[in-house]
Structures are given as structure tokens and as C-alpha cells.
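Bump. Still looking for FAD dependent oxidoreductase C-alpha cells.
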Amino acid sequence: MAIPPYKTPARAGYDIVIVGGAAVGSSIAYWLSQALGASASILVVERDSSYEFSSTALSTSAIRQQYSNPINVKISQFGVEIIRGFPERMAPFFKGEPAPDLGFREHGYLYCCSPEGVEAARARVDLQRSLGAHTVFLEPGPLKERFPWLNVEDLGGGSWGSQEEGWFDSMGLLNGFRRAARASGVEYVDNAVTGLDVAGGKVVAAKLATGQTISSGTLVDAAGPRAQQVAAMAGLSIPVAPYKRYSFVFSSATPIPGRMPNVIDLSGTFVRSEGELFLTGNTPLDDGPADYDDFEMHHEEFDERIWPALWHRIPAFDALRVQASWTGHYEYNMLDHNGIVGFHPEVTNFMFANGFSGHGLQQSPAVGRAVSELIVHGAFQTLDLSPFGYERIPRNEPFLEEAVI
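Sorry for the wait, here they are.
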């Protein structure tokens, strides 16, 4: 993996050091810069400012409200608010240039439901609707009427997010937050944190790949799939590891008419439209922790598992051709697939913002705001993300989310 030449930071110490500058790290930097202005020095250390291998760049860039946990629904609702209003929010930082429009394609998610899963699916829809989501449950007949290209013979129905779900420009979100943070005084440096000095229950300094040691008032771990590497430097441990996900863009000899949502099959395979093409992926058979630098593609995943699932669910997909493919990493929380957000109880200035298990991009606006609130105010001011706190990790008490892709 090629890494750009490293550079040194401008200061010998900072009030806040954020390790990782992709969507989550840059969102944190943005919200902190808006809350603190010039009253605090903030450094973002990003090991690869090209973001070529970042989870943000390699994400499928989607957002949904179809979760089983109320806090995840609310997190996504705030994410949609930010995505829709992004050009106006970013306009002050793009003087003389058009502010980024994230191209939100509000086509929704369609979760296929087995006959035995209907009761649980209906309960999730009721929960989501009670929180203001637009999810509806469709029985097989109405489901077939709305999406005539769908095979519903083995389904008990489907839950469809008719509004405020879809996909958007991931790098537009990242670059907007990053530019706004830098324009507000945040320093970004191409470098890598290689060690942390801990004394008196606090991180006092970070060591960089270029040999410098910089002092730090607060250390934020926003290192994505490398989160455990950073935590270990402070003598800490979280159950977060990189898990590989393979994405495929394909063409179909038979077009799909109408407005196609992101279809989540019973098999776990998803597929959505991308103009005249389609994007698909799944949970691979060999799912498990991967090496940090392992981005090797497994093309057989499409031929042996994805295509058969697609053809069964959407019979029009009988003649497909892969046009592009890539491998990305989930920062997978092996305990419960939910994020870890908050200070460590013993290393008291070490902040976690990790383990979002494929949801980091869509959750980054709310997580960035929440981390900023904890640092600035010592408590959440808007959404209460305390269920994501680190304390559940050593207690081995999962904060469960049923709707995981």
C-alpha cells in the first residue's frame, strides 16, 4: 500500500489530537471547531490523506432508518438532516465555489422478510414509525404490485423505507467536513501515530512516524479499522477489527423498470441501481478479522454466492456482467456491531469513536457532534449516545442491534 510522504505538525502540542481523518474523524474535527473556534488547538493525524483505502472511500455510501434500536434510528435521522442541508451548511467554507451537494438518491431500502420473520419485522416497522420514520410493511401481494420484478414466492413480505433512506456521495461528505474544519483552524497532517505516552491516567503525548513527540490534552481514536492498534498504544483493548467486504458493479441484459430501492435479500445480499448499472455485495462466507493491509479481491464471491441470490430474488438478473469491483474494510465491533463512543474510565482523556461495523459513514454526523459535546461540555447535549459507552465492553454486555447487514 503506497502512503504519501509524511509531514510534521506545526506545533509541539495540541489541546486535542484526533487520530484518523476520514468521515468520523473529520466530522469530530468539524463539530469541535464550530464549538471551540480559536480557543483550542486541534490536530488531525491522517496516515493516508489520499483516503484511497479508507472505509469512507470504499463504502457503499448509504443511509437508512430501518434499525431495531431507537438510538440508531435517531442517529440516522440527524444524518439525513445533515445530508439534505449540506450545501447550505458548507457554503460559508466554500467562498467563491459551489458548496458540495451530496446527491442524495432517496430510493429507500427494501428489507425482504421470511414468513417466520413477519412478526419481528412488523414490530421494527412500528418502532421506526413511532420515531417518525416512513417505513411501511408490505405483504407479498402489495409488495409484488409495487415491485413487479421481485420474486415474492418465499417471502412473508417486506419493509420499505419510502422516504429519507438511500445513498449519497461519501467523499463529498468527508471533504466538506474536512474543508470546513481546516477553514475553522483545525490542522491536518499527513503522518501516523506510532505510540502513545500515558502517565497519571492520561495520554500525555503521541509519537509520530516522522519521529516527533507531540503533547496532547485529549486524544481521540477515530482510526476506523485500525482502532485497536491505536487503543493498544495506550494499553487499552476494544473488540474492533477490519472485516473485508466485497463490492461489485454490474450490468444487466434486462433493465429493471421504475425506481429501484436498495434490496436486502434473505441471504444478506444487497443490490441497488446506479444509473444504468447496479451495485451489489454481501457478507462473505469467510467473514472474520483480516489483516490491516489485506484488500485482496475474491471474485468468486460474486459467481458462487451473490449472483445465485440475485437471480432467485430478481429473475430478470439472468444475464449479468461485472464491470468493476473493490474490497473495503468494516471497522467491525465483534461484541455487538454497534459503535463505541466515549471516554475510557481509567485513561480519562482517551476518547473512543470506533466500531461502527459498516454504519460509520451514515452515523458520522451524529457521532462527531456527540464526541464534540463530551469534550466541550462533559456530557451529551443532543442525542444521548451513552448506550455506546466503552463501559459495556469489559462487562461483555452487548448493546444489540438486530438489523445488521
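Residues 109-165+241-333 form a domain with the D-Amino Acid Oxidase; Chain A, domain 2 fold (CATH 3.30.9.10).

Edit: fixed formatting.
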